Amino acid sequence: MNKNEVRIQAKEDYDPSIVSISDEAINLTINKYGLSNTTHKLPSWDWMLSPQMKNTKTALMYFIFANAQAFKFWTLDNGKFSRYVKNGASGTSAMFKILATAWGDNATTEHLKEHLDTTGLSTFFKGSPLACFRVDIVNELITEQKLEDTAETLYNLIQGIQGASLVEAKFLANSFPLAYGDDPYFKKAQLTLAAICGYMDRFSKVPLNSSDLTALADYQVPRVLRALGILEYSKNLAKSVDNRKLIIGNSNSERAIRAATVLAVDKIAEKSHTTAAIVDDILWSSQDLAKDSFFHLTNTTNY
C-alpha cells in the first residue's frame, strides 16, 4: 500500500461532471496565499496533550485513542441541522475535550478501563451523534494491550523509515477495523499518522517524511477548496450541499468530492514543492476563507 494506490482510487472515483478541479484557481491560490512557502511543517499537536501525556509513546496511544472518534459531529433531524456542542466547544474540539477528560492522567489502558468502569463510558458520549458506536470503538481500542502494542509498533515503524506512509495507515486500519477500517482513503488513519509525525518530528534528529501521505478526504478541506474556486461542484451537487441535503455515503457524488480533494491537494503540493499532508493542514487551518458556507453532509464514520 502506497500513495499511488490511493491516487488510483481517487482517479477511479473522480468525475468532473460532478466535481471538477480548476488548475487556474490552484495557481492563483498558491500565488495569493503563499502556499509555496516551504518553511511549513506538520503541527506538533501539543494542544491535545496534557503534561502527563507528553511521554512519546503515551502521546501516540492518545492520538490513536482520540482520532478514532474524529467523525460526524452533526445531526440532521427532519431537515433541521445541528452541530454537536458540549461544554462550550463544538465539533472536534468538543469531542477531544471529552476524551481528554476520560483519559485523565492515565498512561495505560488498564488504568483507563478502571476509570471508565467507575465513571461509565456512555456518560462521555451522551448526546453525541452515533454515541453507541463511539462506545464500541473505545471498547475495541482498550481490549487487552492492543493500544499499547499498536502504539509501540507504529513508533518503531516510523522511527525505522523516518516518516509515515500508507503502509502504517493500513496497519492501523487492520489493527482496529471498527475504529479505522473500511475506508479506501484511510482518512482517520492518516490523520493519526500526521499527528504522530508532527509530534515525533520535534524529537527526531532528521525531519520526518510525510510525502507518502495524501490529503485527508473529509468534509472541511473540500469546503475550503470550493471557496477558493479550486473545486467546482455541478449545479445539482452545489444545490444539495448549499441546502444541507444528505449526500449518500459511497454514492458517485460523495466519492467524487473525496477523490477531487485528494487529487487537488496533490496538485497544490506538487506545485508548492511540499507534501500533501502539509497542504491539507494549511487548508484545514484556513476554514475562515470559506466563511459561512456549508460543508457536505454524509452519514459516515470515515470523517
Report on this model:
It is a single chain. The protein is mainly alpha-helical. It folds into 2 domains: 3-41 and 214-290, no CATH class; 46-201. It has 15 helices and 6 strands. The strands form 3 sheets. The chain has a two-stranded antiparallel sheet. The two termini are 21 Å apart.
Structural class: mainly alpha
Distance between the termini: 21 Å
Helix content: 40-55%
Biggest β-sheet: strands ordered side by side in the sheet: 1-6
Q: What pattern of helices and strands is seen along the backbone?
A: HEHHEEEEHHHHHHHHHEHHH
Helices, by number, come to 15
Largest sheet: 2 strands, antiparallel
Q: Radius of gyration, Cα only, in angstroms?
A: 19 Å
Q: What labels would you give this structure?
A:
303 residues; two-stranded antiparallel sheet; 6 strands; 15 helices
Q: How are the SSEs placed, and which strands pair?
A:
Elements lengths: L2 H11 L5 E3 L1 H11 L22 H12 L6 E4 L2 E4 L1 E2 L2 E2 H13 L5 H11 L1 H4 L6 H11 L4 H16 L4 H10 L1 H4 L6 H15 L18 H8 L3 E3 L1 H8 L9 H21 L3 H9 L19
Antiparallel strand pairs: 1-6, 2-3, 4-5
Briefly say what this structure is.
The protein is mostly helical and 303 residues long.
